[in-house]
Every structure is written in structure tokens, then in C-alpha cells.
């Protein structure tokens, strides 16, 4: 067939698909207004309109929605990279690693409770833990954007930790797939390759930006060629094409290399964000020295138009190469985030993102979940998996006392780092033990008041000096609670790993196979894991939405000048 015959769709198809689109946006608005978790309604609509429910959409339409939804997920993760505060990302990378490792190790360890619960083999328990160790990136970034926490330190830690869990989850897909092979031998290449490639992207790409791209950019400053290139990309539509080519080029490279395309999307957004954050240079004239321009030029143009405020006639006709700042190019209007907001924000929010969460609903076997034999086991396992992710929030919990020493207001990660630094300091200068410096006195006084100690490289909120009181400030559990609850949601990666394990026969295998036949308990494990993924995907966003609504109510009722409820975790 050389072409596709054009036929007018029947009215039933038109009404079904149009109502599906309208309901996706309506329920998203209503639930976001109430609980900041409109994505849950979209998942439920996917169940109702898809194969698990009424099957109102054709199989071909559901396949297309899955494909478009995954493009929406890529763009959603790309937006997360664009919006992440880079200074906070670098300052909290160690904390993010600790949160990610906790969110991986604890669920896998707790999953071995399936051995006595269902007489499962260690391989089946490990596969179940692998499916539950991931964190849904789409849910994470959606919750952050709807709650307004994307540009905060808390959002930076959460998004980075969720990204690490996602990369590990996709490595687990390769491991589980290899476990189900006929040889029953794990190929080291399939395990090592995604890890090495992911580390290569995470290490090599930032190093190239710092030690290759930045020097070349500075070397080309003031050159005629560089000015002509900047003039070409002084249009927002040209920036959009350039950013799109860079995004999907890096995504394609990551896919063919064997690592996560979502990780590549996040990394590409962070690189564009870094490029925009680099200080623009002042105009270069003969005998003058280039210096960074403080701030950005304002006065952006409409969508797709050229930035307003071009330089005067004398500058334009002088023939002297000038920078974008000198030419009057609106740096804010041409940034990656501004370009994304102009061209992609509305299609992603109204079409692609709802398609993604609806596609999750397509993959939920709702008819197999309500079996009395596995229902209560699924609830028990869900509770364990919720606890397995909630413990991630303990990295931000501030304790009152530990070993008899007051450490009010100090997060766990900061306390461990400070203790290590103090031990090294005492080894170098033991004579300083007797006479503490005034800076240490002020620090200890601040701790006695309960003010959080900022992590190095990130500014915290300033507050006036107040005399110490005999009562310590209350310990805030909100940052840790938000972090732990946001990590609870599993979503797409969990369903992917579980489906791979089912298709490869992991769930049907037993530790002892004397009869050579599969038993019912193997399918029970699949149903229990599906229960845990489904309930965690629902409970996590609801819990975060309730906490955020509580925080907004406290913020409205707070006195003017009162400290932010989230403390230093709620600032940029």
C-alpha cells in the first residue's frame, strides 16, 4: 500500500477521544486545586477508558497515547533540568546520593519478607524489590511543579535522588531480563554497561562543559564569527530548534549507548540551564577589557519574535564585534526556560503529560487485583514499601539529642560532615580545643536557638539576632516528610520492571521445581507487586499534596517577617 486511505472517523470515535481529552484536563484542574495531585485522576481515567476498564479507546489509539505520553515524560524531565538551581544541585549532591542509596537498598531489603509470606525464592524477592526501588520521575516533577517546590533546595535534592533511582531501576531491567534467560547466567556486560555509560554521561559531559565549552566560548568572545552566530540565534524560534536538536540528540545518544533516555533529558536541560547562567560579557573594544555583565537585559518580544531593544545605529553599523548583551539581545527572553514556556509548556501540560499518566492506567491489570488470597498480602507489602521510601526523609530530619549532645536544627548529613571536619581539625591543631574561636561560639549559639545550619555553598534565610531562650525551637518535620512522601511514588519504571519479570518467567519460577510446573503463588507475587506499585503511586502524591496544602495555610496565617516553615530547604 503506497498511501494511507483517508476516511472520516465515525462519530463514536470522535466523541470518545474528545471526551477523553476534555476529562483529562478537567479532572487535572479539580484535583490540583484540591490536593495538588491531578495526575491521579488521569491515571484513573486511563484505567476507565483503556483495556483494564471499559476499553473505550481502540488498541491502536492506546498505543499512540503511550508513545506520545512518553515524549511528554521526556519533555517533563527536560523541564526539570531547566528549572533546577545549579548552585543548590552542586551543594547538595552528596545528600542526594545518600537519599537515592537509601531509597534503593531499603525497599530491596524489605522485599525479602515475601519469602516467608509467599514461599518465594530469593530471586523472586529480589525482582520484587527491584521493581519497587525506583521512583516515578513523571510524578516527581509534576508534584514539584504543582506545589511550587521546583526551584527550592528540597526540589533539587528530590529531583536528583529520583533521577538516580531511575537510572538504577533501568539497570535493574537489564538484570531482571538476564535472570529470566534460558541460560540463567548473568552477562556482566548488560549489568556494567548501563552503569558505566551513566557515569560517563554524568562525569564527562559536565567536565566538557567546564573545561572545553566555557574556554572556547570565552575565546570566541568579540570575534566576528561569534557575533554572526549570535545574530542568527537572536530569534526565539531559532533557539527552540537548537534546544530541540540538542535534547533529542543527547537522548538518542543515551539510548544507543545503553543508558536512560530520561537521564539524558534531565542532563540536557541542566546543560542548557548552565549555559544560560553563564555571565554575559561586556562589549569588547580596542584596548578595553571584557568583564561580566551583572544582570540581564529586559524587554522580551512576543513568541517567535526577535528580542527587542537592539543596539543603536552607531553600534550596529560600526563593524565592531559586540556581545549579545551589547547588541541588546534579551537574555531572559532567549533562555532555555523562556523558550520552553513559549513553545512546549502548554502542549506538555494539556496534552502530552495527561497522555503519559493515562498510559500508566492502561497498564494496570485492575481485574486481577481483587483476589481475596492476595489482597491483604498486597496491602502489607505496600505498607513495607511505603516505609522503605519514607526513611529517605530521615536525611532531612533534625534531631534534638544524640549521645547526650544537643544538635537541634542540624540535619543528619550536615551533622556527619561536621563531625568528620572537627576530627580532622583537632588532629591538625589540638591547641585550639581550649580556646574556641568567636565564630564557633556564634555557631553554637545559633544551634542552641534551633536555626538550621546551611549546607556549604547554599545561602540560607537571614534572620535577626535574638537573645537565647531557655526553650529550644520546635523541630520541623515538614522537609523530611515531603521528601519521603514524594519518593514513595513508583509509577512507570516499577510497572516496566514488573512486566519484564512477568514476561521472562521470573514470577512463575519457584526455588524447588520438582514437578516442573508453575504454581499459583508465582502469579500471586506479580499481583502483590502490582498492588504495591499502584497504591504507592496514589498515596505518595496525595500525601505530598496534603502537606503542601498545610504549609500554604501556615504561610498565609504566619506573621509578617516570620521564618519560612521549610527553613533553608524552601529557598532557592
Automatic annotation (TrEMBL):
Pfam families to which the protein is assigned, alphabetical: Na_H_Exchanger (PF00999)
One annotated GO molecular function: antiporter activity
Regions that span the bilayer: 12-31, 38-58, 64-81, 93-114, 126-145, 157-179, 191-213, 240-267, 351-371, 378-397, 525-548
Record keyword Chloroplast present: no
Bilayer topology: Multi-pass membrane protein
Domain of life of the source: Eukaryota
Cellular component terms (Gene Ontology): membrane
Chief location of this protein within or outside the cell: membrane
Region (Disordered): 427-473
Protein's name according to its UniProt entry: Sodium/hydrogen exchanger
Amino acid at each position: 500500500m503506497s498511501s494511507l486511505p483517508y476516511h472520516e472517523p465515525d462519530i463514536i470515535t470522535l466523541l470518545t477521544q474528545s471526551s477523553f481529552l476534555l476529562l483529562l484536563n478537567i479532572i487535572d484542574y479539580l484535583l490540583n486545586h484540591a490536593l495538588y495531585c491531578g495526575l491521579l485522576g488521569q491515571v484513573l481515567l486511563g484505567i476507565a477508558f483503556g483495556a483494564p476498564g471499559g476499553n473505550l479507546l481502540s488498541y491502536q489509539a492506546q498505543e499512540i497515547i503511550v508513545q506520545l505520553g512518553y515524549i511528554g515524560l521526556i519533555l517533563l524531565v527536560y523541564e526539570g533540568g531547566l528549572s533546577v538551581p545549579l548552585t543548590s544541585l552542586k551543594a547538595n549532591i552528596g545528600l542526594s546520593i545518600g537519599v537515592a542509596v537509601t531509597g534503593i537498598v531499603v525497599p530491596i531489603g524489605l522485599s525479602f519478607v515475601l519469602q516467608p509470606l509467599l514461599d518465594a525464592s530469593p530471586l523472586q524477592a529480589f525482582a520484587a524489590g527491584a521493581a519497587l526501588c525506583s521512583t516515578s520521575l513523571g510524578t516527581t516533577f509534576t508534584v514539584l511543579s504543582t506545589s511550587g517546590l521546583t526551584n527550592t533546595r528540597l526540589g533539587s535534592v528530590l529531583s536528583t535522588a529520583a533521577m538516580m533511582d531511575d537510572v538504577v531501576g533501568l539497570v535493574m531491567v537489564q538484570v531482571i531480563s538476564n535472570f529470566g534467560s534460558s541460560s540463567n547466567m548473568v552477562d556482566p556486560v548488560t549489568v556494567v554497561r548501563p552503569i558505566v555509560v551513566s557515569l560517563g554521561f554524568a562525569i564527562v559531559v559536565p567536565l566538557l562543559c567546564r573545561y572545553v565549552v566555557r574556554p572556547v566560548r570565552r575565546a570566541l568572545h568579540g570575534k566576528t564569527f561569534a557575533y554572526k552566530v549570535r545574530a542568527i540565534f537572536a530569534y526565539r524560534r531559532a533557539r527552540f530548534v537548537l534546544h530541540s536538536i540538542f535534547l533529542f540528540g543527547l537522548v538518542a545518544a543515551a539510548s544507543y549507548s545503553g543508558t536512560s533516555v530520561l537521564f539524558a533529558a534531565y542532563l540536557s536541560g541542566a546543560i542548557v540551564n548552565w549555559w544560560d547562567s553563564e555571565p554575559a560579557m561586556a562589549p569588547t573594544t580596542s584596548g578595553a577589557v571584557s568583564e561580566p555583565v551583572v544582570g540581564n537585559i529586559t524587554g522580551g518580544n512576543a513568541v517567535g519574535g526577535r528580542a527587542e531593544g537592539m543596539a543603536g545605529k552607531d553600534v550596529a553599523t560600526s563593524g565592531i564585534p559586540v556581545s549579545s548583551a551589547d547588541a541588546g539581545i534579551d537574555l531572559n527572553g532567549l533562555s532555555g526556560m523562556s523558550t520552553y514556556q513559549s513553545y512546549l509548556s502548554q502542549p506538555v501540560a494539556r496534552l502530552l503529560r495527561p497522555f503519559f499518566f493515562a498510559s500508566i492506567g492502561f497498564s494496570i491489570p485492575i481485574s486481577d487485583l481483587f483476589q481475596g488470597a492476595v489482597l491483604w498480602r498486597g496491602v502489607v507489602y505496600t505498607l513495607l514499601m511505603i516505609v522503605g521510601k519514607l526513611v529517605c526523609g530521615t536525611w532531612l530530619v533534625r534531631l534534638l539529642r544524640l549521645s547526650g549532645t544537643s544538635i537541634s536544627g542540624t540535619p543528619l548529613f550536615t551533622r556527619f560532615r561536621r563531625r568528620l571536619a572537627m576530627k580532622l581539625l583537632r588532629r591538625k591543631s589540638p591547641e585550639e580545643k581550649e580556646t574556641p574561636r568567636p565564630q564557633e561560639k556564634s555557631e553554637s549559639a545559633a544551634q542552641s536557638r534551633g536555626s538550621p545550619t546551611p549546607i556549604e555553598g547554599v545561602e540560607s534565610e537571614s534572620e535577626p539576632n535574638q537573645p537565647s531562650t531557655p526553650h529550644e525551637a520546635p523541630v520541623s518535620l515538614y522537609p523530611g516528610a515531603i521528601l519521603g512522601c514524594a519518593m514513595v511514588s513508583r509509577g512507570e519504571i516499577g510497572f516496566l520492571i514488573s512486566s519484564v519479570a512477568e514476561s521472562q518467567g521470573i514470577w512463575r519460577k519457584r526455588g524447588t521445581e520438582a514437578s516442573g510446573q508453575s504454581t499459583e503463588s508465582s502469579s500471586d507475587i506479580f499481583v502483590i507487586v502490582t498492588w504495591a506499585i499502584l497504591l504507592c503511586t496514589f498515596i505518595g502524591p496525595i500525601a505530598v499534596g496534603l502537606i503542601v496544602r498545610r504549609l500554604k495555610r501556615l504561610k498565609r496565617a504566619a506573621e509578617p517577617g516570620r521564618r519560612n516553615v521549610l527553613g533553608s530547604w524552601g529557598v532557592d
